[in-house]
Amino acid sequence: MKTTPETVKYVRRFGQRVRLIRQQNELSQEELADRAGVHRTYIGMVERGEKNATIVTIVKISGALGVPATELVREIEDA
């Protein structure tokens, strides 16, 4: 996928949602990574908007956070 300013905006907003929900659940990045079955540095990269998560990873992260995947992508277009 070609990186555009719009793509970067969505990836950053998604990462911000992950961070917000993770912090609300009082989880560290490492705890979230363990629960989701991904590397701990990957969560940091997602939260900083450096990685564009695949749908599979979004589902893993949402499950680890105990929220529907739609909760992670909610409002990223409008924010």
The major β-sheet equals: none
**β-sheet strand percentage:** under 5%
- The CATH superfamily name is lambda repressor-like DNA-binding domains
> Span between N and C termini?
22 Å
Mean pLDDT: 94
The helicity comes to 55-70%
Keywords, please?
DNA-binding; 434 Repressor (Amino-terminal Domain); 79 residues; mainly alpha
How would you describe this structure to a colleague?
With 79 residues, this protein is mainly alpha-helical. The chain has one domain: 434 Repressor (Amino-terminal Domain) (Orthogonal Bundle), CATH 1.10.260. It has five helices and no strands. It has helices spanning 5-24, 29-36, 40-47, 55-65, 69-73. The longest helix is centred in the N-terminal third of the chain and has 20 residues, at 5-24. The chain is globular and about 30 Å long. The two termini are 22 Å apart. The mean pLDDT is 94.
